[in-house]
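User: I want to check something. If I give you two sequences, will you return the structure for each one separately, not as a complex?

Assistant: Yes, each is folded on its own. Here is the first sequence with its structure:
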Amino acid sequence: MKKEAFVFLAAMGLCAAAGTANATVFHIDEFTVTENGQTYWQDTFSDGAPPVDQVSAVVDVNLYDRAYLTRPQPQLPGPEANGKLALDTAEGFLNIGVVNPVPNLIQRARINSSMNPANPAALLATEQISVSGLFDLIEPQKKQELYSIRLTDWAEDITPQGVELAVIKTGAGNWIVQLRQAIIDDHWEPLESWALASMADITDYEQISLSLLNNPDDQSGGKEFTAQFMLLDLDGLLSAQTFTSSKRGVMYQTIDGVAYDWLRPEFTARLTVPEPATLALLSLGLVGIGLQRRKSLV
């Protein structure tokens, strides 16, 4: 193996090792998307494969291929067993995204919905959309670790928007649910938060359902999404608790005077890589550059 390749791989390894000690394994039990009250996508993680095409309209397979876009690629995170898909941040893809300019480890499955509004399989904010993820209620163990559902319209050469509803351990060590808006090239901006650790009987709940919903008849034309989450007790000893946000996240953009409102739903687990790991990656990266320059001078 070439020295520069070895240095790069070593840097990646050190970065991952420093960032994932005591990382958490989360589980998602169901991921559902509806469009105008009809099931667009539903994965119950019971057969080891993504759902079959559930769009009722006839779709040209040359225009659209129903699948997940994943990080890491190409397979879903996992393993998948007993109606649950494991999301282990320690196995995540080392990523620096358009929203988070800091390294993070991510496991993500995004529905590869069409970005062509003329395609009958496209998900548009002008339709009534709901996106829901049912997760085991697990407290993240590391600061800046989370699991979530998101709506994004990331695309090359187009400044994206994003709305996320996450269960997160904050930098201050608080266990919360948070509605967040993407601020491009900077961060996710918190819009509203709910403290889970302070809720009575929180440890008696086993599941949490996270949802993002719009209303195409409101003044935003469906481009603003409300968040909702529900605490569920599988033992039936406690009543379910439902919380709805008073704030809404925006999911549209205007580029050169043209409005884009396509949506790509996803679920994710992420862990921000702490500063020591970032420094290790940078230091070894500089060593690799030095080796490459030395080689070119020889």
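And separately, the second sequence with its own structure:
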Amino acid sequence: MRKIAILGIGQTKVDEHWDKSLREVGGEAAFLAMRDAGMENVDALYVGNMLSPTISGQNQLGAFLGDWIGLWKQESVKVEAACGSGAAAFRSALMAVASGDVESALVVGVEKMTDKAGRDVTAALAAAADADYEAEQGVSFVGINALVMRRYMHEFGWRHEDFAPFSINAHDNAMHNPYARLHEKITAEKFERSAMVAAPINLMDASPVGDGAAAVVIVPAERVRRKPRIVVAASAAATDTIAVHSRKDPLFLQAAYLSSKQAYEMAGITPKDVDIFELHDAFSIMAALSLEASGFAERGQGARLGLDGEITPKGRLPVCTRGGLKARGHPVGATGMYQIVEVTQQLRGECGETQVDGAKTGMTQNIGGSGASILTHLLQKED
């Protein structure tokens, strides 16, 4: 398999883009990535998306977006893995280029979520849960995560306020990201006083949805002359039961453990070698569980990293350095691609106030559902 590098990146601001269609939002990121790569054409297009049939009434996004950006003859497909769709599309493109089947690929994660009422979006998101045994019983996606968080607090003795550093860090970092949806700092007091959504999860625990797209162009590494060169050191994916109650341990992300373990082995590194971790903080409880399953914290001690100040851009393991899902926003099918773009920015040294000094290895982890599909990628800088 050939070594693959990221040649170009592009992203749109996560927002309520009522004046733009799905094709326009996705096309904007695609054109920016192509321009950054210095290319006018690619051999294949992979689109990560979850909700286009239910929210936009549009399927077949490969051809849909390819038509808009002028890719009429190439392979163009949509890849879906719930909220992990972006990273799933990226992995599909990686395998195609690494195998030699194609020489270049454009990957776009895109989602439009604000064109329907909140109740409709909530119902659409519930499709990532088990339709028979979770969604059918009326439990929402946030409700499932609330049950997990309540059990976690009971098992390990944490208080709700102990999770505040995850959200505070995300909001602090988003202040310096022009593409983030929320440009507002928060305090521990605001975190605790925020309106309840599904106890114990309140508004400050939960990421906001939005419209957005992020894209990259990938090619064989030997074709990249720009320095530093950002290469894909590892790509791994794993699954777990789709329903949380079917798991042997509902407080452990088995798919995160398996995919991160495989990624470390592929790259020949350990968790101690990771300089940046763009984790999937759809809810603050997911941040803690991801840190534990990926080898950065002991079981039940994920919250400790936030309380000890280790997750800031100057900390031992910077996370969500551009705002994460919590403050950059969570356009679900695009989120995994935002993570890839943001780690690439870090390794290029383009992150300004939230730049992680000396960063050479960055990790992304994109979660579909409540941990049913998890994809982990490692990117490295080559000077």
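Because they were folded independently, the notes below concern the second chain alone. The two ends are 22 Å apart (CA to CA). Residues 22-37 form the longest helix (16 residues).
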